[in-house]
């Protein structure tokens, strides 16, 4: 069967996107999804995302990591899916969609940047050398001195597979402060099992974590990721973060067909 796919990337976090409103995609075939994400034998991507019909919202998001397993929320993927929905004329410049962590609202600005509302965050666990929180996906956040030369894959995998996070694991983010409201970060992503050029739920986690531990009082924070720049903003209440938004580019790269 011929499968039409669209390739999108959001600050270098790249995805295979498929219009599955007719529900033909073989979702149970983990190996097949991993094959489509393979950068040599397949299309290539950090993940694969299905756009599906939903009775109440504009569409439903189904997310798979490049290991072929369905996973938790993907912030950059969600932003790319909104841009894809516009290309398919499912929406204009506003979207409400359902994902594994609930309802999301998003807007596409005049500058083409996609702003995605993330879930509220009210459980932030601060330890001596790291912070842990869930922004739709689990994230370990840790400050490091020499971020540029830090071995992300080795050090990220050690924590992800270590005692801290058990079988479920976590995404691992390493951070350096640049100025009062700017941080640079690099992420080891669970389910990709490597460094990705950007992680949307990770950027959201870093911004909130840096505010919680007092590195910044800002509620709009710039995150320099390997693949570009993301902006995270939020309202800070009594130990709760609401109106959390992740904003950045989400760009169409190419489309094609592949035999599945
Ligand atoms: N690898 C993550 C999901 C994708 C997160 C990332 N691509 C993002 O933009 O949020 C996990 O399994 O928890």
From TrEMBL:
This is Diaminopimelate epimerase. The gene is dapF. The keyword Hydrolase does not apply. It is found in: Cytoplasm. Catalyzes the stereoinversion of LL-2,6-diaminopimelate (L,L-DAP) to meso-diaminopimelate (meso-DAP), a precursor of L-lysine and an essential component of the bacterial peptidoglycan. One of its GO terms (molecular function) is diaminopimelate epimerase activity. InterPro entries: DAP_epimerase_AS, DAP_epimerase_DapF. One of its GO terms (cellular component) is cytosol. It comes from Flavobacterium bomense. Keywords: Amino-acid biosynthesis, Cytoplasm, Isomerase, Lysine biosynthesis. It is an enzyme of class 5 (isomerase). It holds the Pfam family DAP_epimerase. Homodimer. The active site is at 74 (proton donor), 74, 199 (proton acceptor). Its main location: cytoplasm. Belongs to the diaminopimelate epimerase family. GO terms for biological process: lysine biosynthetic process via diaminopimelate. Substrate binds at residues 13, 65, 75-76, 171, 189-190, 200-201. The record marks 139, 189 as: Could be important to modulate the pK values of the two catalytic cysteine residues. It catalyses: (2S,6S)-2,6-diaminopimelate = meso-2,6-diaminopimelate. Its EC number is 5.1.1.7. Pathway: Amino-acid biosynthesis; L-lysine biosynthesis via DAP pathway; DL-2,6-diaminopimelate from LL-2,6-diaminopimelate: step 1/1.
């Amino acid at each position: 069967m011929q499968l039409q796919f669209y390739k999108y990337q959001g600050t270098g976090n790249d995805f295979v996107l498929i219009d599955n409103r007719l529900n033909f995609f073989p979702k149970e075939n983990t190996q097949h999804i991993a094959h489509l994400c393979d950068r040599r034998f397949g299309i290539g991507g950090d993940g694969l995302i299905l756009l599906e019909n939903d009775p109440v919202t504009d569409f439903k998001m189904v997310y798979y990591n490049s290991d072929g397993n369905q996973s938790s929320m993907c912030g950059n993927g969600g932003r790319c899916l909104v841009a894809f929905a516009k290309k398919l004329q499912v929406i204009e410049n506003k979207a409400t969609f359902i994902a594994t962590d609930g309802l999301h609202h998003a807007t596409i600005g005049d500058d083409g940047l996609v702003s995605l509302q993330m879930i509220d965050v009210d459980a932030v666990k601060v330890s001596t050398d790291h912070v842990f929180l869930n922004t739709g996906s689990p994230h370990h956040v840790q400050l490091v001195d020499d971020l540029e030369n830090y071995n992300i894959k080795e050090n990220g995998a050690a924590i992800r597979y270590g005692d801290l996070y058990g079988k479920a694991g976590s995404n691992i983010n390493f951070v350096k402060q640049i100025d009062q409201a700017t941080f640079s970060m690099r992420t080891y992503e669970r389910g990709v099992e490597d460094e990705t050029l950007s992680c949307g739920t990770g950027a959201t986690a870093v911004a909130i974590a840096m505010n919680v531990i007092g590195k910044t009082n800002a509620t709009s924070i710039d995150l320099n990721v390997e693949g570009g720049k993301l902006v995270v903003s939020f309202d800070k209440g009594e130990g709760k973060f609401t109106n959390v938004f992740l904003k950045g580019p989400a760009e169409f790269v190419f489309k094609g067909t592949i035999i599945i």
